[in-house]
Every structure is written in structure tokens, then in C-alpha cells.
Design goal:
CATH class of the domain at 438-544: Mainly Beta
Distance between the termini: 61 Å
Strand content: 35-45%
Number of strands: 35
CATH architecture of the domain at 438-544: Sandwich
Structural class: alpha+beta
């Protein structure tokens, strides 16, 4: 028994160590390595350690092995109009609901194969574990029937993606009657018209570049896209297009020493820095959900994402047509040159008394075609960039300079796609067609997920309680409750369920409505309880009332050299109810530690915090700045305060 306890103890020590290691990942985003079927990123501090990208989405499975997927086609009976005398009519009320649980999962064999391939690239290389995503979105795309009966490729669902390997995320789509029929038939093919597009954010570092970037915020905020962003969220593709306009007009300037082979990558790094300064990601920590951000009389996020998709596809097709014309012209020139050379060779042979070479024209043409270099085609995008952002309330002023000649902390968006494949063969029972007029058997599952949180966030959160209350048509009540703590979060994979049934709810629309409230408990016995809220949606996105906010800290190297400063310590104080939270960090004065980002807890609608800087000067006693107030997302250490 003692030996068993010792084994369990060692297991938990190792497990805790691995969790800590993953939480402290520092990877180089601009040094990816392809090993086998995986993409690896080296560790900043140990280049022989690599983290693999878990970019292999799949349908989650039940314990029985069946996929967690359902496609339900339904119809509701309706009476024909008064002036109709048809004996058999077709109901106009019907459609389909597709529900799936997707997860990011890399098979162990694939990891082992990648490690063997890595050994041929880096003899000392070893794979430490998976990359932990900072955040992500999953978008669903299908050909949806429009009111006029036509079909178009359309973004039909947006949501938060799983950010940890083996974590699950629920996606659901409601489609109309004709669209459900067409989609039902495409599931009889190996590649159904239903795909998921993931855009995952990874936090890491980029290597030093001899580049400086200047951004004139007074001109940037005057761009029409950013003026509109004050009232509604914008897509990342729209932001990038606007930054390209501003780059061309000189509002964003890039100064580079050396060649410009990586100009696009450097521009992308600059755009990422500016985007983080100006915007918060929609659906992430501290930002409302997508369904709360569609103003009246404006296009929905899904419609705008679809427009971006159609625009990107048109640009790709136009470019491919241009390449086709260029390739045909080049092939024709090659054929003419080849035939002239053959004619000259035959003339020389005839003068010398030899017979001309007899050639098969088809073979010669095929040889010409094979020797013609095929130009690389632009891939037709499967989906527009659908990550969306909301402009921060605090606006910048003047000219902002970014120096990339150091290891710079940044985020990178990594896209990948997944088609569900032939689910119907694997799980015929996942597909059902029903008549919706049997209310007694109806029950509804309410899903709750924590938005933008992972297991590491539970060092601040004790638990969250969610209470669901359903008032039925026969005056009875159904009450259900879930409690989410770190243990349940790890066990359930951020997917929690509550349930209510049908009790005299003859009004189907009212049956969808229910009430819920939450109670958040944070460390230090700080509790926040919400009021009852009524909703009809089948998913509850739980956002903590206290959220993590990133504070970017940058030390001016010239200032530290002038004042003979060897290190600085920054303490950040945030007000949480009646208590203060204190976070501190140290920066040594060298090229690798002139900037750092720390995260603090703040009330959701607050940006205010205080900080104190301690300067460690060679040959002198440390000097303190005293408490300074701020509501900015960065602290510049460029003078004594």
C-alpha cells in the first residue's frame, strides 16, 4: 500500500511539472520545422527542444467509438391555405440541424514518426509536447440555399475553437429546408459539403530583425474601416486590407536594413503589433460574444465573412487565369523554338547526305508540355479570415515606433481546415429524419462552456456555479445546476450539460426560453453573483467578471545605458473588490529582455491599475518611482519617474 501511495505521489508531481512547463512555453514562431506530418517550433531558451502544432482536428468520439455528431432533418405539419384544395401538399416549415463536437488530437504514432524525422534534421532535437494555443475560432462553411433558390458558399457558423490538445468544442448549424436536403445528399459522398476552418492564435517570439516601423495613429484612426469599428466589430481580413492601404499611403512606414525578401513577413509582424494595440478579439477574455455585436441595419458578421470568402476566391481565380495565359504563351514559344531547331538540324543532315529524323509529332508535343515549367497556382480559399475584433476604448495619439531588432513577443494566426468525411458510413444512426409534432418526447440539452479559459486560469478561479431554471407550460419547474472547477474542467474538456424536458409546453417558441444565473468564486473568497437572465439559445458562454489583461512592458536601451541601469523591477497593482492583486516582473538590461508582457486580473469593464518601478543602478542604492496610475496596455521604462 505504501508503495502504491508513493507511485501516485510521483505521478502527480510529474503531472504538475508538465502543466507548469506547458504554461511557460516560449517558442520561436518564425523558425518552424516540418518533421513527418507535423510542424514543430523550437524553444527560445533551448533550440533542441521542440513543440508540435496540434493541427489535426477530428470529430470527437463517444466511449463506444461512435462520432459525437448528429444531423437531424425535421418537418412540422401545417395546414394548407383556405383557397387550396390539394389533397397532398408540401409543408414549408422544415430544415435541418447539424451538431458536432470537434477536438484537436494528434495520434501518438504521428508524434513518434515526427521525432524520428526530427533526428535527421537536428540530431539533438526532441519533442517536448504540444503547442498551447492562446485562443482560436472555428468557422463552418457550406453551400446554403438563398431565398431565390440559388446556392452559394457561405460561412454559416462561428464559434470558439478548442485551445488545448484533446479539448472539445461544440459547433451547431441550423439550415433551411432545401439546404438541409442538398446537404443530406452530399453526406452520401466521401467529401460532404460541410467543412470546418480553424484559425488559432499562438503566442511566442520572433527573432531579431533589423527593422523599425513607424505608425501615425492620427492618420490610422481616420481610415473609414476604423471609424466604422467604433460601432461594430471588424474582421481581421478587413483590418489587414486597411493596414495595406495605410502602408501604401505612408501612414505606416517600414525602415529595413538589408534585402526585402521577407518584407511580407515583416509587414505581418508590424500589423500584429498594431492590431494588439488597437483591438480586442471578439469572443475572447473581456470582450462580448459575436451574437451581441450585430448592430441594427448592418450586415451580420457571417455575411461579411462570406463576402470576404467570395472576394478572396475571385482574386485567386483571376490570378490563376493570368497564370494559365502566361503558361500557354510560354509553351507556344517553346514549341516554335523547338521546331525551328529541328528544321535547322534536318537541313544540316540533308546537306551531309543523311536522311532527316522521323519524329512522332504527338510525342514531341507531349515532351514540350512536360518540359514546360508549371507555374504555382494560387489555392482557392476554403474560407475567409473570420477572426473578428472590437476597437479598444482607449485611443492612441501621435507616431508610434516599433523596433524589431530584439526577440519580440508576438502572436501568430495559424489556419487549417477539416472536412468531416464520410460520417454516414461510420455512424448511420447519427442521421435522422423526424416529424417534429411529437412534443412529449422532446428534451433539450443546454451546453455551457468557458470562453477563452484553460486549466491554468483556475489558479485565479475557485469555481463557477451555473443554475438553470425552466418554467413549463403546466406551471411546473425544472431546475438543474452544474459546478465547474479545475477538476471538472479537465475531466469534461470544457463541455458541460444541463437538461430539461417537455411538460405541457405547447408553445414551441416559449419552450425554448429558460432562465440562468451564475456565481463566480475567486481566490481570496471574492464572489460575484449575476442576476437571472432569460435566453432561447442552447449554449451558454461563460465569461468571468474578472478577466486577465495583458500589460506590455518595454525598456529603453539608451536610457539604461545613459543612467548605468543594470535591471528594473515592475510591480503592478490591480483593485479586485476590497483587495489588491500584485504582479511583479524583472527585466535585465540585454537584448533578449528589453520587453515583456505580463497579465493581471481586472474587473471586466475596468482598465485602471497602478504600478511601481524599481531601478537597480550600478554602484548605487535602488531607486523607486512611487505608485503610478495608468489605464494603458503598456508601460514604457524610458525615464526616472
Amino acid at each position: 500500500m505504501r508503495k502504491l501511495y508513493k507511485t501516485i505521489y510521483v505521478f502527480f508531481v510529474v503531472f504538475s511539472y508538465l502543466n507548469t512547463t506547458h504554461a511557460q512555453q516560449q517558442i520561436l514562431l518564425d523558425k518552424p520545422v516540418r518533421a513527418g506530418e507535423l510542424i514543430l517550433f523550437p524553444d527560445l531558451n533551448n533550440r533542441s527542444n521542440y513543440y508540435y502544432l496540434p493541427d489535426k482536428p477530428q470529430l470527437a468520439s463517444h466511449t463506444t467509438g461512435d462520432p459525437i455528431f448528429s444531423f437531424l432533418r425535421y418537418v412540422k405539419n401545417e395546414e394548407s391555405t383556405v383557397d387550396s384544395n390539394d389533397g397532398i401538399s408540401e409543408s414549408s416549415v422544415g430544415g435541418g440541424i447539424v451538431h458536432a463536437l470537434v477536438e484537436l488530437k494528434v495520434p501518438k504514432k504521428m508524434v513518434k514518426d515526427a521525432e524520428r524525422a526530427l533526428g535527421r534534421i537536428d540530431s539533438n532535437g526532441k519533442i517536448i509536447g504540444p503547442v498551447v494555443f492562446k485562443s482560436g475560432t472555428v468557422s463552418l462553411i457550406s453551400s446554403v440555399a438563398k431565398p431565390n433558390g440559388e446556392f452559394e458558399a457561405k460561412v454559416c457558423g462561428l464559434g470558439n475553437a478548442p485551445i488545448l490538445e484533446n479539448q472539445r468544442s461544440a459547433v451547431s448549424v441550423h439550415i433551411n429546408k432545401l439546404g438541409s436536403k442538398i446537404l443530406w445528399e452530399t453526406f452520401n459522398t466521401p467529401t460532404p459539403d460541410f467543412s470546418a476552418h480553424f484559425e488559432m492564435e499562438v503566442e511566442g517570439y520572433q527573432s531579431p530583425k533589423r527593422v523599425t516601423i513607424e505608425a501615425n495613429f492620427d492618420r490610422i484612426y481616420k481610415h473609414q474601416t476604423f471609424e466604422a469599428a467604433l460601432a461594430a466589430p471588424v474582421l481581421s481580413a478587413e483590418i489587414k486590407a486597411s493596414f495595406d492601404d495605410l502602408f501604401d499611403s505612408g501612414a505606416i512606414q517600414l525602415t529595413q536594413i538589408g534585402d526585402d525578401e521577407e518584407l511580407n513577413k515583416l509587414k505581418e509582424a508590424a500589423y500584429t503589433q498594431l492590431m494588439n494595440l488597437m483591438f480586442d478579439k471578439v469572443g475572447g477574455t473581456g470582450v462580448p460574444q459575436l451574437n451581441q455585436l450585430t448592430p441594427n441595419a448592418q450586415k451580420s458578421m457571417l455575411d461579411r465573412a462570406t463576402e470576404q470568402l467570395q472576394k478572396a476566391r475571385k482574386e485567386a481565380r483571376d490570378e490563376n487565369r493570368r497564370l494559365d495565359v502566361l503558361e500557354r504563351s510560354r509553351a507556344e514559344r517553346n514549341r516554335v523554338t523547338q521546331r525551328r531547331a529541328q528544321t535547322r538540324a534536318d537541313s544540316i543532315r540533308t546537306v551531309g547526305g543523311h536522311q532527316p529524323i522521323i519524329r512522332n509529332q504527338d510525342t514531341a508535343d507531349n515532351k514540350d508540355n512536360n518540359e514546360t515549367e508549371t507555374l504555382k497556382r494560387e489555392p482557392i480559399p476554403s474560407l475567409a479570415v473570420t477572426v473578428s475584433y472590437q476597437m479598444k476604448q482607449v485611443r492612441r495619439r501621435g507616431v508610434y515606433k516599433i523596433d524589431l531588432n530584439k526577440y519580440t513577443q508576438t502572436t501568430k494566426t495559424l489556419p487549417f481546415d477539416y472536412n468531416l468525411g464520410n460520417v454516414k458510413i461510420k455512424c448511420p444512426s447519427c442521421f435522422r429524419e423526424i416529424n417534429a409534432d411529437d412534443p412529449l418526447m422532446k428534451q433539450r440539452q443546454i451546453n455551457a462552456t468557458l470562453g477563452g479559459m484553460n486549466a491554468d486560469d483556475f489558479k485565479h478561479v475557485n469555481f463557477v456555479n451555473v443554475i438553470m431554471r425552466k418554467k413549463h407550460g403546466n406551471d411546473q419547474e425544472t431546475v438543474d445546476e452544474i459546478k465547474i472547477d479545475k477538476s471538472e474542467f479537465n475531466k469534461q474538456g470544457n463541455f458541460f450539460k444541463m437538461l430539461y424536458g417537455w411538460k405541457g409546453d405547447n408553445d414551441r417558441d416559449k419552450w425554448l426560453a429558460y432562465d440562468f444565473k451564475t456565481l463566480w468564486s475567486f481566490r481570496g473568497n471574492h464572489k460575484v453573483e449575476s442576476n437571472w437572465e432569460t435566453t432561447k439559445f442552447g449554449s451558454i458562454a461563460l465569461e468571468p467578471p474578472l478577466v486577465k489583461k495583458p500589460i506590455y512592458i518595454e525598456v529603453d536601451e539608451d536610457f539604461t545605458l545613459e543612467k548605468n541601469i543594470k535591471a528594473v523591477e515592475i510591480k503592478v497593482y490591480s483593485k479586485l473588490g476590497e483587495k489588491n492583486e500584485v504582479r511583479s516582473t524583472n527585466l535585465r538590461v540585454n537584448k533578449s529582455e528589453l520587453s515583456k508582457t505580463i497579465e493581471i486580473l481586472l474587473p471586466r469593464n475596468s482598465e485602471d491599475y497602478e504600478y511601481e518601478i524599481t531601478y537597480f543602478i550600478r554602484g548605487e542604492r535602488p531607486k523607486k518611482s512611487g505608485l503610478q496610475k495608468s489605464d494603458y496596455g503598456r508601460i514604457d521604462v524610458d525615464r526616472f519617474m
